[in-house]
Amino acid sequence: MKQEQKNTHCFLLTAILLFSFVMGLAKETHALPSTEIQQPHVRAQLLSEHETLSPGVSEMFALRLIPEPSWHLYWKYSGDSGASPLLTWLINGQSVDKDVTWPLPERIQVGSFVNYGYRDEVLLLVELPIPQDARGEVTIGLDAEWLVCQEECIPGNGIFSLSLPVSTDKQIIPSKDAPLFEKFLRRVPTDGSDLSLHLLPVNTSSLRLTLSEPSELTESLIFIPGGEGVIQNNAPQLLTRTDSTAELILQRPKVEPFSSVFHGIILKTPPFQDGSMGKSISLQYPIADAGSALGDTNSTQKDTQYFVLILMSAFIGGLILNLMPCVFPVLAIKILGFVNKAGKKHSSIRAHGLAFGLGVLISFWVLAVLIRGIRHAGEALGWGFQLQNPSFVALLVLLMVAVALNLFGVFEFGASLQRISSQVDSADDERYLSSFLSGILATLLATPCTAPFMGSAIAYGIQVDLIRSLLVFSCLGLGLATPYVLLSLRPNLLAVLPKPGEWMITFKQLMAFPILLTALWLLWVFEQQSSPEALLWLLLASILLAFSLWMYGRFFPVTASRHKQRVGILLLVILISISGFIGLPQSEIRENEASSSLFSQYEATRDSYGLRWITYTEELMASLRYAETPVYVDFTAAWCVTCQVNKRLIFGSKPIRDLFQKKGVILVKADWTTEDPVITRALEMFDRLGVPLNVLYLPGDWDNPVVLPVVLTRGVVIEQLNKLPDKDS
Amino acid sequence: MLPMRRFVLTVFFLTVFFLSSILSFASATQAEVQIGASAPQFTASDVHGVNQSLDQYKGKIIVLEWTNPECPYVVKHYQTGNMQQLQKKYVGLGVVWLTINSSGENKQGNLSTEEAKNYLSEKAAVPTAYLFDPSGTIGKSYGAKTTPHMFIINSAGTVAYAGAIDDNSSSRHSSVENARNFVAEALDALLADQPVQTASTKAYGCSVKYSS
User: Fold this and answer.
1) Are residues B18 and B74 in the same domain?
2) Could you say which of A139, A318, A534, B179 would form a disulfide bridge with A480 (CB–CB 3.0 to 4.6 Å)?
C-alpha cells in the first residue's frame, strides 16, 4: 500500500509541476487576449454588432482601429508603400477563412509616394458564421497585425478575444457599438457595374476614365486602384467636367508588375444616386499597349487625328481670347497705334507686330513649362492654377487698377519705359522691346479669362509629352497674337478707321472700363479665397496705388527733366512696393493638423491665418465630448468689434497659433452674425446674453470648461493652453 | 546700341533662359527601371569614403538592396539573420551585393560612415559594399520605393529582378521562416544560366526616406 500511495503521490506531484510549468510557458509566449489594446499611435478594439449571438447565422464583428491624429493606417491595397492590416479570425479557437469588408479609403500623399488608407478611426468589418450547434457561449478570436505610419512607420499587433452568450431568442439585441457598425457599413463601397463608364487611351501612357453624370452632380472624383499595377499611384488625377460627363486622366503604371484588369473604387462627392460615396468598378484595359504592334497603328491614327483637333481648338480659343474684356482693351489700344503710323514705314510696323507675336508665344511656352513642372513635382494643378493663388490674384488686381488709370490718362510712362498705350506721336519706332513686352502683358492679362474651346485643349496640353504640349500652347499663343500680327502685316486694312483725333482719347478712356470690370471680378474671386480682412487690405492697397500713380502723373510729367523723372520713378517704385506689401495676403495656408484629420465630415471654414474652424452645431459638440482632445469655442459675430480685436490679438501671434497646434486643440466657431437660436441657447448655458464668449473645453472634464475673460489677453490664453498636455505625449 | 540689336539680344537671352529651364525640368523627371532594360549607372561613396561605381562590377551578377536600419521590415530580416545569410551565401558564389542607404539628411535611417560600420559589424552583415545615396538620385533612378526593395542585375548589365525580398509582408519576425524568397530563387536561376521565373513582385516595407 505504502509504495502504491508513494507512486500516486509522485505521479500527482510531477503532473502538477508539469502542468504549472506548461501554464507558465504559455503565459510567457502568448499575450493575454483582451477586447481592447493600446499600442503606439493606435488604439484597437474587437467589437460585436449584437449583444447575443444567434446560432446558424452570420454575425457581424469588427476590428476598430483609432490612429492618433496625423498618423494613418492602410487599406487592403496600401499603395506605393506601407502594409495592409492582416487579420486572422477564430471561432471557438478554430480559424475561419473570412475576408474583411473594407470601408472606403482615402488617398494619402506622403512625400512623393501615394498610399491608400485611413487617417481617422475605421472599423474593419467581417461576417462570421456562428455554428448551428452553438450553445452557451461562443468565443470570437482575432489575431491582428497592422502598420501605422506618419512619416515613419510602427508595426503593431494584438490578440483579441470576445466571448458572447448564444441566444435562441427571436429578439436581436444590438450592442452599444451598433451605431458604429451602422456608420461604417454606410461607408462600404457599393457595386458600380451599373455606372456608365468608359475607359479609353489618351496616349501610350495615359488613360481617360469617363463617367456619364451631369456636371452638377460631380464636384470631385478620385480613383483608388484595387491593387498593384493598375495605375501610377503618385501621378496626379486630372479632373475635367463637361455638361454631361466627368473625366479623370490617369497614368498607366510605368513598371511591372502590370495588372491585367483595371479595377478599383471611384470616390465621388457629392455621393452617387444610391447615397454611397464610393463604388467598386472593374473594366478591361483599352488596347493601346506600348508593345503590341497590331492595335498600335489604329490608335496612333486616332491619336494624331485627336491631336490635330486639339491644335485647331487651341488656335480658335486663342482667337476668341482677343474678344475677352481682359484682353480686348489692350489689344484695341495697340491696334489704334497703327492708325497713327499708317504713314510710317511698313517694315517698322511689321517688326513691331512680329515682336508682339513673339512675346505672346514665348509667354505661353513659359506657362506650359511652368504648369508641367509644378504638376511633375506632384501638385495636382489644372489651368487657372495661377488664379488659385490669392497672392497672384491680388497682384493682378493691382495691375488692372494701374492699367485702367493709365487708360484714363491719370499717368503716362515716360519715353524710356512705354508699355501699354501708344501716344499719338511718340517716338516708339525703335522700341521693339516695348512691343515684345506688350505681348507678355497681353498673355498675363488673358490668364483670368478662359475662352470657349480652350478647356479641353489645355487639359490635353498639360498631360501629354513636352513637344506636343508646346505645340498646343503655341497654337493658343498664335490664336491670341494673330489679329494684331495680321494687322501689322497689312496696315492698309486700318484705312477703314477714321483719321486720328479726339475720338482716340475717348476710346482709350472707354477701354478702361472693361479692365475695371475684370478687376472687380478678380476682387470677388480674392474675397472667396481669403478673408474679409485681406480684402480690406487689398482695397486699401489699390487706393494707395491709385494715389501714387496720380501723384506720379501730376508732378513728374513726361516733359520734366531726366533727373526729375528718375526721382519720380524712384518715388513711384517705393510707393508701389508699399502697396504690394499691404495688399498681398500675408499668411501661408497651412493645415491645422489637429482638426483637419479629425471631424473632416463637419462643415468648416478657414480664416486668414490658415486655421481651420469647424462650424458650431449641437451634434458636433456631442461628438467632441468623447474626442478626448481640447476644444476651443469662439462665440463671435462680424459686427462685434471686441471679437475681432480678440481674434487679431490672439491668432495674429504665430507662437500662440503654434501652441494651439502643439496642444492639438480643435477650433470651433459659433458665428452669431445672424440670428441663430442654437448659439443663443449655448450662450444662455453660460449665463451670457451676447458675444464675445471664448470657452476652452478640457479633455476628460467636459462639464467644467474654462470660460475665458471677455477681453482676451495673450497671457491668459497662453496660461490656459500650457496647462494642457502636448498632443503627442 | 541700335534698338533693333538691343531687342534681338534681349529675346536671345530670354530664349536661352527658357530653353535651359525646359532642359532642367526634363532631367528632373523620375525614371523607373523596367525588367530587361539596362541598369542605370551610378557612383556612390562607401563606408570607407571610397567612391564606387556600378561600372567596376561589370560582367558580374549584382544585387542592390535598399535599406533603412530603423524600418521594422528591414529589422525583421536582419534580426533573424535572413539578410546576412543571403549575403554570405551568394557573395561566396561570386555575386556582388551592394547595400544602398537612400535616407536623406535628417531623415530616418540616415547614418554616418562610423555608424554604418558599427551597424555592419554588429549585425555581421557581409555585403560587397555599403553605399550612401543621401540625395536619393540612385534610388529614384531605379524607382526604389520601399525598404527593403531588391534589384538584381545580370551579367549582361540588364535588370533581371525588381521587387520584394520574399512573399510575406508581415512585420512579425516569425514570418521570414516559411516565406518564399524571390531573391534566392532569381539568383539560383541566374547562376545556373536559367531564366528568372518571377522577375517582378510588389515590394513591401517602409517608404524610402528620400530627402525631398
Assistant:
1) no
2) A318
The residues pairing with B200 across neighbouring beta strands, listed in sequence order, are B162
Q: Which three cell numbers stand for residue A54?
A: 444567434
- Reading the block at residue A582, the C-alpha cell is 499691404
Test the B interface: residue of A78, A152, A259 with most B CBs within 10 Å? A152
B139 and B177 in a single domain? The answer is yes
Closest by Cβ to A436, choosing from B7, B25, B71: B7
- Tell whether A204 is within 8 A of chain B (Cβ): no
In B, minimum Cα distance to A80 occurs at B145
Q: Give the whole-angstrom CA distance, residue A450 versus residue A383.
A: 9
β-strand B149-153 against B159-163: which pairing, if any?
Answer: antiparallel
Least confident of A253-262, B29-38, B173-182: B29-38
The pLDDT value recorded for residue A449 is: 67
Q: Given CA atoms A491, A497, A503, A507 in this order, what sign does their dihedral have? A: negative
How many whole angstroms separate alpha carbon A412 and alpha carbon A419?
A: 9
Best interface-test mutation with A: which of B107, B171, B172, B212 has the largest number of A CBs within 10 A? B171
What's the CA gap between B154 and A677, in Å, rounded? 75
Min Cα separation A115/chain B (Å):
10
pLDDT score of A357 more than 70: yes
**Domain coverage including residue B16:** 1-30
Q: How far is A420 from chain B (nearest CA, A)?
A: 17
B chain contacts of residue A111, beta-carbon cutoff 8 Å: 207, 210, 212
Tell me, yes or no, whether B17 and B45 share the same domain. no
Give A379-413 as a DSSP string: ----TTGGGGSHHHHHHHHHHHHHHHHHHHTS---
Cell numbers that stand for A417 in this block: 519705359
pLDDT at A30: 42
Looking at the structure, do residues B93 and B24 belong to the same domain, yes or no? no
Q: Using the beta-carbon criterion (under 8 Å), do B207 and A436 form an inter-chain contact?
A: no
Pick from A80, A255, A369: CB nearest B33: A255
Q: Based on the domain organization, do B10 and B111 belong to the same domain?
A: no
**Among residues of chain A, what percentage have pLDDT more than 70?**
80
The pLDDT score that the predictor gives to residue A577 is: 84
Decide if B200 and A255 are in contact by the 8 Å CB cutoff. Answer: yes
Q: Chain A window 527-586: which residues touch B at a Cβ cutoff of 8 Å?
A: none
Alpha-carbon distance of A283 to A262, in angstroms, equals: 5
Q: For A232, which residue in chain B has the nearest alpha carbon?
A: B32
Residues B21 and B66 in one domain: no
More confident residue, A413 or A480: A480
Whole-angstrom distance, CA of residue A691 vs CA of residue A712: 13
Distance (Å, rounded) from C-alpha A483 to C-alpha A491? 12
* Binary contact (B205, A155; C-beta < 8 A): no
Let me know if residue B212 belongs to a domain: no
Structural contact between residues B97 and B63, judged by C-beta atoms closer than 8 angstroms: yes
Contact yes or no for A147 and B172 at CB 8 A: no
The half-sphere exposure of A38 on its side-chain side, counting CA atoms within 13 A, is 1
Is pTM beyond 0.80 here?
no
B96 CB contacts (<8 Å, ≥6 apart)? B57, B60, B61, B62, B63, B128
From the list A422, A410, A441, the residue with the least C-alpha distance to A348 is A422
Q: Are residues B198 and B156 in the same domain?
A: yes
